[in-house]
Specification:
- The chain is an alpha+beta fold and 785 residues long.
- It folds into 4 domains: 1-49 and 259-393, no CATH class; 61-240, no CATH class; 397-435 and 653-785, no CATH class; 451-637, no CATH class.
- Helix content is 50%, strand content 17%.
- Strands 14, 15, 16, 17, 18, 19 and 20 form a 7-stranded mixed sheet that branches.
- Helix 1 crosses helix 11 (304-340) and helix 11 (304-340) packs antiparallel against helix 12 (354-376).
- Mean pLDDT is 87; it is low at 380-394.
Length: 785
Amino acid sequence: MVQPVRTLLRSPGFSALAVAIVALGLGAALAVVEVADAVLLRPLPFADPDRVVTAWQVSGGTRITLDGADFLDWRAQAGFEQMAAVSGRGFTATFGEQPERIEGAIVSEGFFPLLGAQPLLGRALSVDGAAVLSESLWRSRFAGDRSVIGRTLTLDGEPHEIAGVMPARFRYPPLAEVWVAARTRVPDHPTYPIDPEHDRARHYLTALARLKAGTSLAQAEAALKAVQARLVQDHPPEEKDIGAQIVPMRDHLFGPVRPLLLGLLGVAAVLLGVAWANAAHLFLARAVARAHESAVRVALGASRGALWRMFFAEAFVLCAVAGVLAIAVATLAAPALVRMSPQGATLPAPELSARVLAAAIALVAACGASLGLTAALQPLKAAEVLQEGGRTSAGSRHQARLRSAFLVFEVALSLVLLAGSGLLLRSFRKIASVDPGFEPAGVLAADVPLARARHPDKSAQLRFAQESLARLRADPLVDAAGYVSRLPFSPNNTVGDLALPGRENEAFPCDLRLASDGYFETLRIPLREGRTFSEGDLRGEGPPAVILNEAAANKAFGGRSALGQQVLVWGEAMPSVVVGVVGDIHHLGLEAQPRPEAFRPLGVVGWPNLMLVMRGKVPAPQLAAPLRAAIHGMDRDQPLAHVEPMQQRIGDSLSLRAFTLTLLSVMAGVAALLAIAGIYGVTSYLVAQRTREFGVRMALGATPARVLAEITRETMLRVGVGCLIGLATAGALARALQGFLFGVPPIDAVSFAGAASLLAAVATAAAALAGLRGARVDPAEALRA
């Protein structure tokens, strides 16, 4: 092993370049493998995780959360070993002078035993209303004080005894920092003051279950569907057209990111392929340059087996060094990749596991074997080489064809990535240009979660909203302000039914909102007919009022005017009168079609989780100061969360697309640079080997321009073939991106032509730059060489 190292050290330029190229490709691949291993293969931090599942109701092919009464029926009848309910929510916590908003959950009895979670400190929940802290919250807010057990933690204005601390490895829900024991058998609803054990209308619970030993997923799901079928028969109005489904816990946690991870694995494999082709170029060129050395070795008695061992030893040494560097790169890059991801906070931290190390060893071995074989398989005619006396040669036709094949291969792979980047870029621009249905510029948004202890009912919540709006509107910097129960682009939605009186059997799904006066004006949602809410509507003066969007009005009344018509919303027995129709907005995202929406006046039902919008005479960020002054002037303990411009909320809704585009673009750019480097290197090498030929031709009258044109043309023929193969491959693979595309077909002529043109233009420049050396050959010097 010492001799190959010495040989490589005598060629530091070749060795450093080969190691860098292989390390780049391996590092990118291993970084993605490390993330994929953590998400897709690492055992979940639960006892017997393969038996832990989530149970869902299904409506219209879409999974929905569970209501309280159905959860109790499922737990009693479905035959699970254990079952628990979780209601994820934010809490206003008081640790010091200023209240903080933290993520948490209210959980039913048996939640921690079901997951097999053992506390780091104290005990799991057993007392109604007790709280368990996450390790990170315990360390950051209580300095890791072990005497925290038994203390009181105030959440939403209510005291909770701290029962225990969960270790950092326990993550469910993924962002939860505190868990509170439900005071009844079912966690209470986050907004409605209902009896959760008997309500079948409000779906808000995530149901966890543990399968009995020996019970398959299919058997458990069949039993659950049978229970749900009986509920449909026993409670036809509430359970109409609702089914059941079981989802493994890993799919529930990481299912949405699996397609992205698999796509990134494919992209990393392509980048590794480009890097390998570039390294193979170098090994082939080195084998040709060392032909005389190899011929001398053969003449002195070395066998072909000895030459093979030399080539393989050098390749494995280089790839081993590259592998060590790649592991170091991946160890740093994988956590950074997770941190940059919009979903990074919900993903497990990547680490160098035995599986990742095995993958690294396998890739290093494959690269070393293939690169060594590339050099070892080159034909060697020792007698002819020795007769040439060591003069430079371009190698055999076989070697020329192999160089061309490598060049075509890396150009084709680079074009596949560039075409994919082009598709995502065009799709992103299409989405970003969609009109959201309102004017977000200049609007500041904020979440205003009201503590139930201080605002226990709808009347108290309405008083707070009206007083705070009066204070805000009195500020000279504020033009308009309003509250709504859920802002556009919120991560959650509220769905109910809308029906016409006497035609309840024709009810259709409709998104439900509570809104104050000024809300529509602040966002400048266009008013199509009628009026928006007044303060009298909020006070309950006159008949109940409702505002529909165009989608709801058209679905309910066809082409007829909705103004003055009566509808049933929120499950209310008394009809509401349509006082206005507003334009459609993209509530669930710019790529999602507007859905039917019905707005009722703020205060008709209890809803403590308010959202505020403000428009003013100054840029949106500068409205934060008057907002805090108004709210804290009323209640210094009232927290404000997600105080940010409305445009930022729209941008956040596109963050996953932006992240995917950025990542693919970076990898495509690196692959293209490697391909361009390969084009330049191959062209430069061929020019150097044909210096004498060019000198002879120029002595016979060939012009430098003609020589340059011929060199460039020969290279570009190979690039052209690579582009054709790349376009065909991209077309075959483009459908894999269909789930990420919007307004752009998978085979998009603009994206494909743009990627090919860009690559061809840069390749032409690289080939011409390398070919200048041949065009500048001095015939006299070339002939003397």
